[in-house]
Write a structure and sequence with these properties.
Largest sheet: 6 strands, antiparallel
Radius of gyration: 24 Å
Number of helices: 9
Mean pLDDT: 90
Distance between the termini: 62 Å
Number of domains: 2
Order of helices and strands: HHEHHHEEEEEEHHHEEEHEE
Shape: globular
Structural class: alpha+beta
Number of strands: 12
Amino acid sequence: MAVTLTASACTTSHTSSPDAAAKATRAASPTPTAVPALTKQEALAQIARYSKINNAANDDNNRMLLGTIEDGPLYAMSVADYKENEGLPQADREKYKPWSYNLASTNLYIPRFTAGQKKWFAAVTYNGKKDKYARVLIMAEQTRTKRWEMVAAVDLDDKKQAPKIALDADGYATALDATSTRNVAAPLDVLRAAVTDNFTTGGDTTGKKVFTSSKASARQIKAHDSTVHKFGSRGTTAFSAATPEFTDSYALKTADGHALVVFAHTHTQRDAVAYSGLEIVPEKKDRAWLGTANSPSFTYTFTCSDVATVPTTPGKSTLIGYTCRRTDAHGMTTSS
């Protein structure tokens, strides 16, 4: 703003006056005022609404109804659960049991936004005896419909890992841009590459360099280490990075000056036989995608949500939770 005014004054220096400059200054656009995305009571009401409609949708795998309360990676994972369940024999399908989030054991973190910015809020909800288990939730307002929908729900490995979020005098949180190194030491693309590397190499390339040792990182690395040799000499398994379908991230400033970042990633797993004459038999839980036909190779796509604490100065981040679902799979026929 100041640069624009200065340039304008230079180009009209022969005719402008102090009064004209003052008028130009007064005409400058005011700094947009950031306001809370919604009130705490409204946020709790949105979570309660989610629980109610989620139960109704899950009772009969109603994708359209679910789409009114979920979006992004969470919706993709939920409908994948529907598909997988529908692919099982009737006798193997579990009857859905209704549940809801305990609002009395839910901490809300509501940022302020200016006009035009996408609105969202976070929550950490606890359940179990003595609130043993913690889950990070992200709800975002949809631009077109103005509906609030859940886009991420990630269990933490240890509730003690949930960081203390910085709050202003009115109890509201501060949203950060996790894509910028001005806000975080490891921006979104680095975090996404690191969690993907945990699956693709066991963390040997970037995963162990970006993240400290944690239960969540160890589980991702174990998924690689315990899977790549499952066929022995008869086949191979390889994980690969995939273009992320969901690119949004959500970050909050923590009380210690770091950031809590929630994001999504996509990776694939390809199982293949080592030589002709062998075929892979689809597992029961894969049949919704693969049917019952054997194949020399199968490729699975996984959609995941990840939660990490990230320093603002150089240092390692910590992965504190993640969840993944198989969201696609396909095979190759022997004739192809």
